Amino acid sequence: MAQYTQLGLQDAASPLMEELLHFHDHALMIITLISAFVLYIILTMVTAKTTDKYILDSQEVEIIWTVLPAIILVLIALPSLRILYLLDEINDPHLTIKAMGHQWYWSYEYTDYEDLGFDSYMVPTQDLTPGQFRLLEADHRMVIPVESPIRVLVSAEDVLHSWAVPSLGVKMDAVPGRLNQVAFVASRPGVFFGQCSEICGANHSFMPIVVEAVPLEHFENWSSLMLEDA
Amino acid sequence: MSLLATVGKQLKSHPALIPLFIFIGGGATMSVMYLGRLALKNPDVSWDRKNNPEPWNKMEPTQQYKLFAINMDYSKLKKDRPDF
C-alpha cells in the first residue's frame, strides 16, 4: 500500500512491475541530472559579470548540444520499448478470474473449475479493527496462488470503473459490455491494495481492490471454504 | 534539385546543422518504416477484400506478429483453440 508522504512507486510484487520500477529509476536519474545541470547553467549566467553586445555563434557547441540530447533520448527509448513489448507478451495463465465493477463494489468470479463468486465491499471506517488500513481494506479479498500466472478479465455491470493494483503493475479499465484482459504473476506472498481508477459516482473513492497472494495449498483451502459458505 | 542545392550550400557554412538532419531524418525514416510495416504485415489490416478478407483468422499459433520478441519463444506455443 502507499504510505503517507510516499514519493516513489510502491515495492514491486510482480516481475513486470519490477521492470517498470527500474526503468522509472533510470529515467528519473537522467532527468534529475539534466535539471541540475540546467539549474547550474542558469545560476552561472545570471550571476556572471561578463556581458556581450554582439551575436555569438559556435558550430562546435551546436553539434554537441544536438548530438548529446539525441543520444540521451535513445538511451531512454530503448529500455522503454523493451518494457512495452514485454508487457504484451503471450502468457499461459494457470487461473482466470473475472473482476466485475459495480457501483460501488467489485465482484470476483472464479469459474475455471467450480462456480465461485463473491462481492468485495470496502470495510467502513467505523468497522475497522486495529491495524487495518482506512479506505483500503475489503471484506472479501481476491485470493490468488503465488508465483502462478493469473489472467483477470475485467468488466463492469453499470458504469466505467478501473481495476488497478499498483504493486502488481496492473491497471485495466472496466467497461460495461466489454471484456478486457490483464495478466500478471505475483512473485511473493502478501496483500496488495489498489483503488478504483475511473470516476464512477459518489463512492468512487470507496471501492478498493485487495489481492492476497498465498501458497497454492492455502489457496485451495480458501476456495473450498468459500464454496461451502456460498 | 534547386532545393537540395540551396540546403547543401547552407549546410556548408553551418555544419552544425548536419547532426540535426541526421536525427530528424532518421526519426522520420523509422516512423515511416514502422507505419509501412504495420500497413503491410499487421494481421488486423486487409488490403484485398476479395481474396484475403480476414487475415486475422489465418494466424499460426507460432507466428510472431510483433516487431520484437524479448522473452517469448514463439516456436514453443501450441494451438489450443478450435478452428474458425
Automatic annotation (TrEMBL), chain A:
Main location: mitochondrion
Claim: ATP-binding is one of the keywords in the record: no
Cofactor(s) recorded in Swiss-Prot or TrEMBL: Cu cation
Cofactor note: Binds a copper A center.
GO cellular component, one term: mitochondrial inner membrane
Gene3D superfamilies: 1.10.287.90, Cupredoxins - blue copper proteins
GO terms for biological process, alphabetical: ATP synthesis coupled electron transport
Name used for this protein in its record: Cytochrome c oxidase subunit 2
Organism of provenance: Pseudambassis lala (highfin glassy perchlet)
From TrEMBL, chain B:
Keyword Transferase: no
Transmembrane segment boundaries: 20-40
Cellular component, GO annotation: mitochondrial inner membrane
Keywords from the UniProt entry: Electron transport, Membrane, Mitochondrion, Mitochondrion inner membrane, Respiratory chain, Transmembrane, Transmembrane helix, Transport
Annotated localization: Mitochondrion inner membrane
InterPro entries: B12D (IPR010530)
PANTHER family the record matches: CYTOCHROME C OXIDASE SUBUNIT NDUFA4, NADH-UBIQUINONE OXIDOREDUCTASE MLRQ SUBUNIT
Family: Belongs to the complex IV NDUFA4 subunit family.
Listed name of the protein: Cytochrome c oxidase subunit NDUFA4
Organism: Parambassis ranga (Indian glassy fish)
Taxonomic lineage from the root: Eukaryota, Metazoa, Chordata, Craniata, Vertebrata
Gene: ndufa4b
